[in-house]
Amino acid sequence: MNIINEKISLISECSSEDLRIERSRLCCDIEESTLEGSAFIRTQLKGAGFVENDIRGAGFLQCDLSGASLEKCDLTGAAIVNCRLDGMTIDGVSVHEMMDFYKNNHKENKTMNKATRKAIIAGNWKMNKTRPEAKALLDELKGMVADVKSVEIVACVPFTNLETALAATEGTNIRIGAENCHFEKSGAFTGEISADMLAEMGVEYVVLGHSERRQYFAETDETVNKRTKAALAAGLKPIVCVGELLWERECNITEEVIARQIKLDFFGIEADDLKKCVIAYEPVWAIGTGKTATADQAEEVCAFIRATLAKLYGADVAEAITIQYGGSMNAANAAELVSKKNVDGGLIGGASLKAADFTTIIKAAENG
Ligand code: PGA
């Protein structure tokens, strides 16, 4: 039934559940009616007055609702999609004002969440520095960052440097991490180091699933998952690296790759344990290449990681996790990267080997 050009000025006390009204003109008042589950599609409702109606679960699609007013209506679960809303009010409040308020509030919440997450700047020294060099670097660094409070500073160093690094940083604000650990507790695994061995030394963090381990040492998401579980069981804080290859980005499958890594690397890990983990987004094409992801690219993927975690663990858990960016982060580009809403610090390779550069990055994160 089309009600075009009919002079209906009031619909009152009707019960029209699941009604479907399409391409119609209903610029009249509707009072004390039940329109539960109804659908209004491309319908003129300009200036219409809805009073004390039950509009639960109703849908308004591509309607002109400008100047319409809804008073004392039950709108639970109602959806308004692609409609004109100028001058529309709900219980006397402008819908545009409500939307602005929501948007601003939402923005503030996001900022608050970033503020409540502690930024972590971790150096990944890779296969660099002898023990005397490690001591000299940390001695220089600790003086430069002694006043830093709001950023967690971590140096992930080769196994041979762990003892030296722990001694050099004792009583300072620099935490020490390893660059890998094995998933078995002990046994016939020549050349490997277990999570328990690291924990016993006083090591706090461990980098896992770094792309160099995946690329050169045949590590898979399955072994990263096992290592992450072993590290958590030993009381270490894993920094789990994920990131796409250049050709994967070029094939436009970055999100699929990252979602797969997140799902597999954290498979079977409960929310309470996940909260102890740090995730480092490291696009493989940006590591050691001098090619940094733009701040927007970094933000886009870090936000995607958070959204993926929100689906798996809920928004509260996702908001609590520190997500770093890594890949040619340096003293010049750090400030812009860490200013992004979902980038909570960085995993730094080359630039962590120079105390002054690393300090600049840490100070950028303090202000980020
Ligand atoms: P890069 O390394 O900063 O030298 O690119 C980062 C990393 O491998 O973690």
Q: Would you kindly provide a brief summary of this structure?
A:
The protein is of the alpha/beta class. The protein contains 13 helices and 18 strands. It folds into two domains: 2-105, Pectate Lyase C-like (3 Solenoid), CATH 2.160.20; 112-367, TIM Barrel.
Architecture overview:
With 368 residues, the protein is of the alpha/beta class. The protein has two domains: 2-105, 3 Solenoid (Pectate Lyase C-like); 112-367, TIM Barrel. Helices cover 36% and strands 18% of the residues. The chain has 13 helices and 18 strands. The strands form three sheets. Strands 11-12-13-14-15-16-17-18 form an eight-stranded parallel beta barrel, surrounded by five helices. Helix 12 links the parallel strand 17 and strand 18 (345-348). The longest helix is centred in the N-terminal third of the chain and has 22 residues, at 95-116. The protein is elongated and about 90 Å long. The mean pLDDT is 92.
Characteristics:
single chain, 368 residues, alpha/beta, Pectate Lyase C-like, TIM Barrel, 2 domains, 8-stranded parallel beta barrel, 6-stranded mixed β-sheet, 13 helices, 18 strands, binds 2-phosphoglycolic acid
Instruction: Name the CATH superfamily classification of the largest domain.
Output: Aldolase class I
The share of residues in extended strands comes to 15-25%
List segments where confidence is low: pLDDT < 50 over at least 5 consecutive residues.
Answer: none
CATH fold description of the largest domain: TIM Barrel
Number of domains: 2
Bound compounds: 2-phosphoglycolic acid
Helix tally equals 13
Which structural category do the helix and sheet elements fall into? Answer: alpha/beta
Q: What overall geometry do the principal axes of the alpha carbons give? A: elongated
The helix content is: 25-40%
